[in-house]
């Protein structure tokens, strides 16, 4: 049997609160379990308000922090026990982050194209300038850009939307199986957000990459996601197919979130799969402002 792409088993994260000598503990994540299948790439949204534990979970999936309880298995291997440079590098090639602020993801003093070339050399094994440029070009094309558009330009010379697309291209260079995008559009101009999040669905379809999309924005999550989990105070309070969860939310928090989206978007029908809903901006096929 093929191992799952990603499996979280009763994952928890507890931080020491109030300084080293304090006994106070913050349970940021508690008992979170879910599985992303290897054979079915998907956009998987983790939704929750500020402080619900989303970023803590993302950092653990990326191997940037270790669970206090439970296990995270990537393609069958426990992420917390990866040892040695080779194993870490192999993991980094397969699981790539996309951060909230693209201006922080790039070195402000390095030209964007050069940054991409060095990623190609360091993570994708590109030998020589021509191979690095080719890898950068291929990745940039996947996000609707080209080397010609970023060549010689520093991060601040691109728009936030362009730079976030370049950041996604950077993440694609090593050929990942999983992207972990933590609030990737919250700092992007509202008019460009849907273009970026729709890209995730395209990448799922074109490259077969799975995407964990972390957000507090139910509307974009609903529009692009296959499955969602809703977190509150560190716990998953609702999980399942995006349409089912948002058509018939059972937890009071999910109802609140849904109401908030309907207030903003004005979706007329209860059933987001209905014909009427399909014509509204809040529908999965529609585009949000
Ligand atoms: N390094 C840390 N030390 C102590 N407490 C932390 C640490 N990181 C996060 N926390 C706490 O854990 C809880 C969850 O935080 P986390 O950042 O994971 O939530 P979040 O849902 O991503 O919120 P946001 O959307 O604001 O980033 C919060 O109460 C936060 O204060």
From TrEMBL:
PROSITE patterns, sorted: ABC_TRANSPORTER_1, ABC_TRANSPORTER_2
Q: Where is this region: Disordered?
A: 265-289
Q: Which residues form the ABC transporter domain?
A: 6-258
List keywords of the entry alphabetically.
Answer: ATP-binding, Nucleotide-binding
Q: Which Pfam families match?
A: ABC_tran
Extract the InterPro entries matched here.
Answer: AAA+_ATPase (IPR003593), ABC_transporter-like_ATP-bd (IPR003439), ABC_transporter-like_CS (IPR017871), P-loop_NTPase (IPR027417)
Which residues does UniProt assign to the signal peptide? none
Gene Ontology molecular function, alphabetical: ATP binding
**What SMART domains does the entry give?**
AAA
* Residues annotated as transmembrane: none
* This protein's name: ABC transporter ATP-binding protein
Organism of origin is Roseomonas elaeocarpi
